Amino acid sequence: MTEPTNATSTQESAPVAATSGVGAPLLICLPSATAETVETMRERIATTLQGHNLFLATPGGASAHPAHGVTVVDYPVASRGDAGWALTATDYLGAAQLATEYDAAATLVLGNEAASLSVAGLQALAEAVLLGKADLAVARYQTGPHDALVSSALLYPLTNALFGTPAHLPLPLDAAFSARMAKRLIMVARKPNNAAQPEPLVWPVAEAAIASFSVKEIDAGPRTLPQPTDTDLNTLLAEIVGSLFGDIEAKANFWQRARAPMPAKPNVEPARTASETEELEDVRAMADSFRNAYINLQEIWSLVLPPQSLLGLKRISRAPAEEFAMPADLWARTIYDFVLAYHLRTINRGHLLGALTPLYLAWVASHLRQSAGNAATAAFHVEEAASAFVAEKPYIVSRWRWPDRFNP
Amino acid sequence: MGQQIESALRQSMHRVLVVLVSFLPGVLVFLLAVILLTAFGLLLAAIVKRILVAARFDERLASKETAGSPASISDWAPSHSPTLLVARVVLWACILLGVAIGISAIDASYSANSQLEQFLLPYLTHVLGAILLLFFGSLLARFLARSVLIGAVNAQLQYARFLSLGIKWLVLVLTAAMALDHLQIGGGIIELAFGILFGGIVLTLALAIGLGSRDLVSRSIEKTIDKPAATRDPEPFPAGETPRPKLRHF
C-alpha cells in the first residue's frame, strides 16, 4: 500500500532568508499580471524574500531593468486563455521551463490578482519548498460558505480520497514547486491529451502524489479569488470535472492502491436552523430546480446510478427547502458512479457531465442550508463530504474492478 | 372454349415455371454468395480485431479524444469499443458485398427485358439506403433528444422533457419521410403528410415555448427597459441590511 502524501498547514511568516540557504535561485512567475501588479509584487518580493537570487518572470519582462535586487525576466507564453481563476498547463509549462533554464531551487507561480496574496502566504509558500519541506506547496485561502464551491464539493473530496492528499484547492491559484517537480510538470504539461484541449489543465497535487513527492498545504489567509470570465457554469463544470475524471482514469493503477487519510473535522458551534437564515430563499429556488431535474433526468441518471442512489435522490427531491439535504455518503457514491460511467463511457461523456450539473447544484443547496451562512459550519460540511468520499472509496475500487457485478 | 381455357392455363403455368427455373439458380447463387462472403467476413473481422487489440487501438484512440468533445467514435461503437466497431464494419462490408454479388447473379439469370429485374434490383439498393437512413436517423434523434433535455434542464426550463420529445419526433418524422421518399412509397401523400406533421410539431413547440416563456420574456424586456437606470449608481441597501453574498463556484 502506498502511504499518504504528507500535507500540513502553516501560517508562520518568519523571513525566508533567515532560515534557508541564502543565495538559492528563486523564481517567481506572474503569468497574468498587469504592469501595476508587477511593480507592487517586485517591491513586496524584494522585501519579503531578501537574500535570495530572485528572478521575477512576467510577460514582456525582458525590457525591465533589475531593481530592488530582483531580476525581471521575460515569461515565455505563446498564448493564454481566459481561465485566470486557476493555473493551467500553459502556466506550469512556462514556469517549469524557466525554472530549468535558471536552475531555480524553488519556483512560485502566482495567479491572477497576485497582489492580494498576503505577505505571510507568499513567504510560507516559498519557505515550504526552499526548506525542503515539500516538493509542491499549494495555497489555501480563507473562504466563506459561498466560495470555491466546485472545489469543496468535488475536487477536494475526490483528490483527497483517491490520491491521499488533502489539498482544498487541487486546482491551485498560487503554487510553489521544487526543481524535480518542475521537471515532472514539464512532462505532464506537454502530454498530447493536454495539447488537444482548449484550456488544458494540470492536476499538480495528483501528479505529486503518484510521483511520491511531498505536498504541503499553506494557509495563505484571505485573497481575492478571481472568477472565470465565462459565466456558463455548465460548460465550465463539464470542462473541469471532465479533466479531473480523465486524470483519475489515467491514474487508476495508483489510486486503487493508495490509502487516504480521514480528514479532520473542525469543531463548530451548532448551526442555526434553516428558517433563520437568509440562504433559505436560494435553497428554495435550488430545491425547485432539482425537483425539475429529477423529473426530467431520471432516464439518464438511471443509466449511471444504481437504484439505491436513485431512491435517495427521489427522497431529496420530495423534501421541502427547510429539510433539503444531500447526505454525504449518497453524494460520494453518486460522484463515484459518475467517475465510473465516465470511464466505461456508459453514455456520451458530454451528456454525462451535463447530467451532473443539477446534482452538483443540489449539493450546493444542501451546503448552503446546512452551513447557514457560518464559515465554520461550512468547513465542517465540506470535511464531512471529504470523509464520506474516503469511507466510500472501497465502493469505487470494487466497481472499477468489477463493473458488471450486481449493484442494488 | 374449354380447350382455350386449358391452353391459356398451361401457357401461364409454363411461363411461371420458366420464371421459377430461371430464378432458382439465381437465388441459390445469391444465398451461396451471401453465406461464403459472411464466412469470409467473420474470418476477416476476427483477424482485424486481433490486430487492433494487439495494437491497443482503443487506448490510442481514447488518448487522442478530448474531454470536452461532444461525441466520440466510442459513443457510437458497440460496447463503446472502437475495435469492435471496426470489426463489425468489416463483417458487414463483406455481407453487403455478398448481397451485391448475389443480386448481380440474379440479374444474370434473367432475360434483359424482364420487368422484375428492372424493378427489383434498383429497389433493393433503395431498401438498403432506407434502412441506413432509419438507423442513423434514430441514432441522431436519441443523441439530439438527450442533448436538448440536459441543456433545457440545466437552463431550468420547466418544459425540458416536452422540448426533448419534440426534437426527437421532429428528427424521427424527418427520417421516416426521407426513408419513404427513398423507397418511392406514397409519393405526394408522404410529402404532404410530412409537411403537415413537421409544421404541426414546430408550431406546437413554438406555442408551448412561447406560452411557457411569457414571464421570462417579459422579465427580459423589463430588464432591457430598465437598463439605463442600471448605469446610475446603485441604490444603497436599507439600513441594517447587507447584500446577500453571491455564489462563487470557482
Describe the structure.
The complex is a heterodimer of chains A (408) and B (250). Chain A folds into two domains: 16-230, Alpha-Beta Complex (Spore Coat Polysaccharide Biosynthesis Protein SpsA, Chain A); 274-401, no CATH class. Chain A has 16 helices and seven strands. Chain A has helices spanning 16-19, 35-48, 89-101, 119-130, 149-163, 179-189, 192-196, 204-210, 233-250, 252-255, 280-304, 307-318, 328-344, 349-371, 375-391, 393-401; strands at residues 25-29, 53-58, 70-74, 106-110, 136-141, 174-178, 215-221. In chain A, helix 3 (89-101) crosses helix 6, helix 5 (149-163) packs parallel to helix 9 (233-250) and helix 9 (233-250) packs across helix 14 (349-371). The longest helix of chain A is centred in the C-terminal third of the chain and has 25 residues, at 280-304. Chain B is mainly alpha-helical and 250 residues long. Chain B has two domains: 18-61 and 76-110; 115-225. Chain B has helices at residues 2-54, 57-64, 73-76, 82-109, 115-154, 160-182, 188-212, 214-230. In chain B, helix 1 packs antiparallel against helix 4 and helix 6 runs antiparallel to helix 7. Chain B is flat and about 105 Å long. Residues 229-235 of chain B have low confidence and may be disordered. The A-B interface holds A 85-86, 144, 146-151, 192-193, 196-198, 225, 227-228, 233-234, 236-239, 242-243, 245-246, 278-279, 282, 289, 292-293, 295-297, 300, 344-351, 354-355, 357-358, 364 and B 63-72, 74-75, 80, 143, 146-147, 149-154, 156, 158, 160-161, 164, 244-250.
Structural key phrases:
A: 408 residues; seven-stranded mixed β-sheet; 16 helices; 7 strands; globular; B: 250 residues; mainly alpha; 2 domains; 8 helices
Order of helices and strands of chain B: HHHHHHHH
Helix content of chain B: over 70%
The CATH topology of the largest domain in chain A corresponds to Spore Coat Polysaccharide Biosynthesis Protein SpsA, Chain A
Mean pLDDT of chain A: 81
Report the C-alpha radius of gyration of chain B, rounded.
31 Å
Radius of gyration of chain A: 22 Å
Oligomer: heterodimer
How would you state the average pLDDT of chain B, rounded? 79
Q: Which superfamily, in CATH terms, is the homologous superfamily of the largest domain in chain A?
A: Spore Coat Polysaccharide Biosynthesis Protein SpsA, Chain A
Q: What is the C-level CATH assignment of the largest domain in chain A?
A: Alpha Beta
Overall 3D form of chain A: globular
Q: How many beta-strand segments of chain B?
A: 0
The biggest chain-chain interface is: A-B, 50 and 34 residues
Number of strand elements of chain A: 7
